[in-house]
Amino acid sequence: MGSELIQITLANRPGAPRPAAGSPGEAANFAPWHLVDGRIATNEACGAGPSPGPANAHQPPETLATSGALKTFYIETFGCQMNVHDSEKVQGVLLARGMIPVEDHAQADLVLYNTCSIREKAAQKVFSRLGTFRKGRSGTRKAIAVLGCVAQQEGERFFERAPQVSLVCGSASYARLGQLLDQLEAGERRVTGLALDTDECFETEMTRRDNPFRAYLTIIEGCDQHCSFCVVPMTRGPQRSRASDKILDEARRVVDQGYTEIQLLGQIVNAWHDPSPARLSFAELLSRVGEVPGIRRLRFTTSHPRYFTPDIVQAIDANPILCDQVHLPVQSGSTAVLARMLRGYTREEYLEKIQGIRRARRAISLSTDIIVGFCGETEEDFEQTLSLIREVEYDQVFSFKYSARPNTLAEGSRDNVAEEEKGRRLTELQELQRQIQVRRNQALLGESFEVLVEGYQARLGQAVGRSTTNRVINFPGSPEDVGRYLTVKVTSAGPNSLVGVRA
Ligand code: SAM
Q1: Is 369 in the pocket of ligand 1 (CB under 6 A)?
Q2: Does the C-beta of 229 come closer than 6 Å to ligand 1?
């Protein structure tokens, strides 16, 4: 999954164009930038917490808004596209209650943080933000809600660690969000939605889509895989798939709203199975969504190699609306490490899937996720990861140092690769991948691609487009180009992006 952290706040949104028929508008999930007031900004601010840490424990909550006082809200999101889209749906719930979004938390009656706990660093961010609301530092009556993975992980303990928080809700309880907000408005000071044993999906009547170019659609929630490093099954609950008719209805609706690009989402998107009598396979679902009149691009993420079947490649081959891009996290190139990670495939089995993708009639762009320094990873294991990267030649790799997570199966194993060594391996891997990307991107010189223009950098006079393979291409353009599909010829190439001219 484009696993880089994305921070989206209301401050990113003003001025961002809303989609109009045939002309979608703003920044996308894989981009290292987004539009701010119509301008491009990087996501580097992710780590920049304004305050030193969590509130002192055992202070009474002094910031609770009560009895119908929740009129305005501010929401900040950390984590993957699934979190971003969850926040879009949460905002739909708030808007349907008549609440108004504001751009500054100081003006909000309700401040919500939608959190990520995939790695320790990500989990810490919310405590940094909550420091803003320590006793004496914030304004008046304000309700603070922590949503998502850290909420689920910390549960009731949140109230001890951060007493200014009055609502703690994991994603498996979002279907009850309206009811939880009622409790908050009725003056309850410690409201929780922490049940995990759900078979419900989070359906909303309204969704506030923040990305005017790409409509996210969740098709499967939770995860049952229990990879030994991964916290997701404990924070997002059991796997539950949405019925194909609901997904297709939503796809038609977003196209009616003007979107031409859809991205189907799930932590393990290709494990989707149709609970409806239609019993579509995942590949059939891709084909059906790809046939919705008006759609021009369909993407999906994140696929798990175990469920990556040849019919998915056949579906991509059969319909050019399905983007020529697959994100297939391998995590390690060593079969021994994969076994300890409980990934359910060997290096050889993974490479067979890759060969199946490479045999497609269309050249499909490949990306992956890799963890270095997992418990017991030897130098030889790591070398196997490097050799796999050399063999596959990915177009993009998201790489991480292993971070032990609470309640995971690997938590009890010895996290015995030293931090410094993890850092060394990460740097070596990233340097190797950088060289591969330079080579692969330079091989595209002179080729032309259709891009969807997602931004414009006034200072440089450059438009920023994205190809179906998810490559970013900068080219001389104008603000009016934003939202258009244009053909661009590549004139130069760096490791992370291409430069071109209108063809
Ligand atoms: N569900 C997807 C899967 O299993 O392939 C990926 C979900 S996760 C949000 C994105 C990536 O974060 C994973 O593919 C993995 O590379 C990384 N990740 C997950 N747990 C991690 C951990 N404990 N330490 C470091 N990286 C981790």
Answers
A1: yes
A2: yes
Q: Half-sphere exposure (CA, 13 Å, Cβ side) for 59?
A: 17
Spatial contact of 216 and 254, defined as CB atoms under 8 Å apart: no
Atom of ligand 1 nearest to the CA of 80: 9
Q: What is the pLDDT of residues 437-448, one digit of tens each?
A: 999 999 999 999
| pTM exceeding 0.85 | yes
- Burial label for 57, CB within 10 Å (0-12, 13-18, 19+), is exposed
360, two tokens:
């497609």
- Return d(Cα 251, Cα 245) in angstroms, integer: 10
With contact defined as beta carbons under 8 Å apart, do 150 and 166 qualify?
A: no
The three-state DSSP-derived secondary structure of 356-385 is HHHCCCCCCEEEEEEEECCCCCCHHHHHHH
Give the position of tokens 């719930």.
Answer: 93
Tens digit of each residue's pLDDT (9 = 90 or more) over 196-220: 989 999 999 889 998 999 999 999 9
Q: Report residue 195 as tokens.
A: 């049940």
- DSSP conformation letters of 241-305: EPPHHHHHHHHHHHHHTT--EEEEE-TTGGG----STT---HHHHHHHHHTSTT--EEEEE---G
Identify the pLDDT of residue 52.
27
- In this predicted structure, the answer to whether residue 228 has a pLDDT above a threshold of 50 is yes
Q: Is the CB of 1 under 6 A from ligand 1?
A: yes
- The ligand 1 atom at the shortest distance from the C-alpha of residue 302 is 2
CA distances from 32 to 4, 5, 29, 455 (A): 9, 9, 8, 12
Which atom of ligand 1 is least distant from the CA of 331?
16
Following DSSP, what letter does each residue of 72-131 receive, concatenated?
EEEEEE-SSHHHHHHHHHHHHHHHHTT-EE-SSGGG-SEEEEEE--SSHHHHHHHHHHHG
Query: How would DSSP label each residue in 146-202?
Result: EEEHHHHHHTTHHHHH-TT--EEE-GGGGGGHHHHHHHHHTT-S-EEE---------
Calculate the alpha carbon distances from 485 to 37, 75, 365, 447 in Å: 22, 31, 20, 16
